[in-house]
Amino acid sequence: MKKLFKYIKPLVPMMSLGLAIKFLGTMMDLVIPSILAIIIDKYAKEGMESKIYLLGGIMVLCAVVSVLSNIYANRLAAVSSGKITKSIRHDLFSKISRLSARQTDNFTIPSLISRLTSDTYNINQMLARMQRIGVRAPILLLGGIIITLTLDPVLTLILAAMLPLIAVVVFFVSKSSIKLYTTVQEALDKLTRTVQENFTGVRVIKALSKTEYEKAKFEEDNSGLSKKERKVDLIMSVTNPSATAILNVGLTLVVLAGAFRSNSGLTTPGVIIAFQTYFTIMLNAMLGITRVFIMYTKGEASAKRVAEVLEAEEDIAVTEMPRTESRYHIEFKNVSFSYNKTRPNVKNITFALKRGETLGIIGSTGSGKTTIINLLNRFYDPDEGEILIDGENIKSIPNDMFRAKFGNAFQSDFIVGTTIGENIRYYRDIPEERLVLAAEHAAATEFINSYKEKMDYEIVPRGGNLSGGQKQRLLISRALAGNPEILILDDSSSALDYKTDAALRKALSRNYPQITKIIVTQRISSIRHADVILVLEDGEVIGKGKHEELVESCETYRIISQTQMGEGL
Question: How would DSSP label each residue in 66-87?
């Protein structure tokens, strides 16, 4: 929770002004019943109309001041809570963007989306309610008690005796509801994940006729969320009726005691009427306080979830390490890594590439190909071993400098709903001629020029109006446009025909001889001319060398080669 206080501090002056104005308006509300008691008990009996009109005018003035001040204070509350929430949401999004892949896996994408949306909304509502009702209601309650004490201490003590009972109800209900609101948000995370998976896989779901199954799955998650919300709402719903019942009992006792005291001449009708008015004010104040507690419990649960992300320590930090002289551009030295820390996904991976060389990685699904790419990109840090670029451990390279070295084209990378040119540039400072050149070298010029708008052709989100091959060539163009030192093609030519794939490889070899290339593929033809080929199986290297060497020495590679390219090798 302390993490969130720094967002409130810059707006303390505005919030203090709002509280001062709110205090003024609340005091006007408290003065009105006292003036009414004076009119009834003193001036109405004596028929002093001028005094009645004067005090009546003062009551109207107090009411106007109360309305205007509360409106303005509420506006300040909305502005300040909005600005605080905006800052929290900005920093939360920034923090999420910097989370390591491991941290993102732990939090999960649906949970992060929920924290960025519904949780920040709950915080906003908590801050707004605390300023609007959280200040006004206690002042009305305490002010009402103080003023009624001056009118009739005996009657006031009867009402005051009810307040501890209400406080006990509010305390126990609020205490039990915080954990329940956390489970509600977790259930919302699960529902968000289900919706996200359905949107992402809608074509597969329709193609396999699993719409009814997904509807049933959604209904299960939706019902689970609904049950949890019902449970917490049932608990929270105890507060208002309990507070109302307790205060109504108090009012009944006040009326009875007031009647006896009036007959005995110990109090006056005006005081009793004022007491009834103050009772209504105090009742509404108490109900307002319970509403604030409800909002506070939701806000506190959400604030804890947001703080978990904001306070997450840097998992991928830059660490100073000695640099060694090396003739290699990229080196993996006995690298091992496990996602779940139980079974290694890659084990003892060792290879070295000189600048401009090409590494091919081939293997069955789950053999560790993409894991090697994730480690080289430093999406994860290895559990053992080290990865060097130009003799420098990648852990010691500043992030901006490190990212600038790479051009990545992943198989399932995302495409933005904007023009072809902006998708290649991806909001980087890259001149137009460089975009055209990158598209040409990625064999994308042909399909781009087929559109009348060319680079200005609008692509729908996720590239729905492009074929699989067109998407991949667009992504390779994006990777090349930044003129990287290292080009990574992670199964990014799987949708290309063999002719286009061959043309792409020739263009890369001819136009980018200085770039070190890493190609992950299932096709022998894509890597047969690579300087080094790694054959992976169950996370280990079972073959390393050139194409001709592996055909002779690695049975798995030979079988793949014979299957794809025929016997005559």
Answer: HHHHHHHHHHHHHHHHHHHHHH
Token pair 């509360």 in the structure block, residue = 70
Asked if 348 and 536 touch (Cβ cutoff 8 Å), the reply is: no
- Give DSSP secondary structure letters for 360-410: EEEESTTSSHHHHHHHHTTSS--SEEEEEETTEEGGGS-HHHHHHTEEEEE
CB 23 within 8 A of CB 17: no
Instruction: Estimate the crossing angle of helix 12-38 against helix 49-98, to 10 degrees.
Output: 160
User: Residue type for 553, please?
Assistant: S
Is pTM beyond 0.90? Reply is no
- Output the CA torsion sign for 9, 14, 20, 25: negative
Query: How many angstroms separate the CA atoms of 361 and 372, rounded?
Result: 9
| Three-state secondary-structure class, residue 337 | strand
Q: Give the integer Cα–Cα distance in Å for 481 and 432.
A: 10
Q: What is the DSSP string of 126-165?
A: HHHHHHHHHHHHHHHHHHHHHHHHHH-HHHHHHHHTTHHH
> What is residue 316's DSSP assignment?
S
| pLDDT tens-place string over residues 272-293 | 777 777 777 877 787 777 778 7
Say yes or no to pLDDT of 568 above 50.
Answer: no
Q: 534 phi and psi, to 5 degrees?
A: -105, 130
Rg (CA), the chain: 35
